[in-house]
């Protein structure tokens, strides 16, 4: 049997949100606000890494992408529109069912699978795992599995909350406390600080290439920033 980093209670928690995952005012509203910020960062990193034309509508044409912890496909669908051949995996079968249903009839061919990354075969040019590593049982093993599926010259992009009092206040005390995020979504003890993440990446043979913060302000909402206190994105490649 393949060992897995999936925590069944986490899969059940997110699976229960499948019914309104695509509703921008539903239980996943915060993900809808996060998604454009993530996409802006991913597009920039893709353009920088592969030296693609910033005006191109299909910068990922000819590239394969694996989105781990894909939910109901919020990130998979735009990655496919950017030209990638996309595989999305999630531990919650309910979310994969919702992802397939939403994708159907939209002219997108996305390979959705209800499984953990450990069960995925092959290698991918781009691997994304957004707000996932803080929900797995063994972050180092999870990163190792991502690394083993990264194609030569490939790009790994992650996002996760920082382990700070500010992140706990905004993410758990306020966002969960006032119902903007379902209660029980986050466990502060699972949050990973950037320096700890850098050490984990190094352990599995990855080289950190870039880090950017996702910050919040009343005037701008969620946006890319040099401020890493709340949440951060990172880019890594295999160490040469």
From TrEMBL:
GO terms for molecular function: 2-polyprenyl-6-hydroxyphenol methylase activity; 3-demethylubiquinol 3-O-methyltransferase activity. Signal peptide: none annotated. Keywords: Methyltransferase, S-adenosyl-L-methionine, Transferase, Ubiquinone biosynthesis. SUPFAM superfamilies: S-adenosyl-L-methionine-dependent methyltransferases. Pathway: Cofactor biosynthesis; ubiquinone biosynthesis. O-methyltransferase that catalyzes the 2 O-methylation steps in the ubiquinone biosynthetic pathway. NCBIfam families: UbiG. This is Ubiquinone biosynthesis O-methyltransferase.
